[in-house]
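mind reviewing these tokens:
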Amino acid sequence: MSTAPRFDIDVPAFWQDPYPALARMRKEAPIAFVPQLGSTLLCSRDDIFVSEKQIDVFSSHQPEGLMNKLMGHNMMRKDGDAHMNERKAIFPAISPKTVRSHWTAQFEGHATRILDDLTPGGVVDFVRAFALPFSAECLKSITGLTNMRFQDMNAWSQGMIDGIANYVGDPAVEARCHAATSGIDAAIDDMVPVLRRTPDLSLLGVMLQTDMPMESVRANIKLAISGGQNEPRDAIAGAVWALLTHPDQLQLATSGAIPWLQVFEEYARWISPIGMSPRRIAKPWTIRDVAFETNERVFLMFGSANRDEKHFERPDAFDVRRDASKSIAFGAGPHFCAGAWASRAMVADVALPLIFTRLKNLRLVEGKPPRIGGWAFRGLLDLPVQWD
């Protein structure tokens, strides 16, 4: 393992709120070996920004990694030409042009239909009432798996997320992950003949028009589901919560003084829905006085980078007025999130403006604060609200 200083964490406390420990690491040991996670963590924004681009050292190719073992060898776990070839193959489905001309109208349809079904008056968990089904319905459209229920999309995404973050080796978590991937494979099998006959702009439809091996098609659909459900779901619910607890900033957004996209970017900086990305050290390497050995595992801690005091004043504060351009919530190198444009459209162009236009006097429920958790993936577990 690396020569990084050891830093011990309380795993349950780290799951509840990782930011105090990450702040200590940035100050005392920005590169630290955490035995409870079996990995060396890179916590400073500058180290991560540089290292993520050095794919010859910080390799995404991790044959023994949890994602490869549980979900198949997808493009996120490939480097160089192998990564770029698959990235180019899916680009027609998720390019900025396709998002603008094709997907945004579908996103608006999903949001409007779900909001139409909501009833004002009582206490509602907004995660389950809107953020979860909206994200899942949009993802059904994008992946091409329109044959599944939104509840399955969410459950299977969560099963895979829990599985690939299961660094403590809980067998029950692994079993749920296997059940999720089996369900997705069955859904893919049902849709393949349909989309071969009538190709569309979905991820599955586009990949089936290439020579990509079927095992790679399956792995990349699972990749899209693992990140494409939780990130928009958590960003929508989280941004609503952040704005309701900062009414002055909500007024800036609803008045048009601050663009909704700026709200989304600041929330993604403040509470990074994807807080970590693992890498494998491909060759001996040294950063300052820390030496790494070949094949050891490191975690690029995006959630820490986005609160780095060197780049963000009052980093623990949510402030839509700040310049969040140095945030690396979507990554910083060749593995920059391919779904970033779709996510921005879902959250900033559609969900947030419609929510605050349609749900009059939307407010938090006194005495029922939302629960939040996670460090590799972080988001609200519920959001009790009411509106008139």
Q: What stands out?
A: The first strand starts at residue 31 and ends at 34. The chain has a mean pLDDT of 94. Residues 171-197 form the longest helix (27 residues).
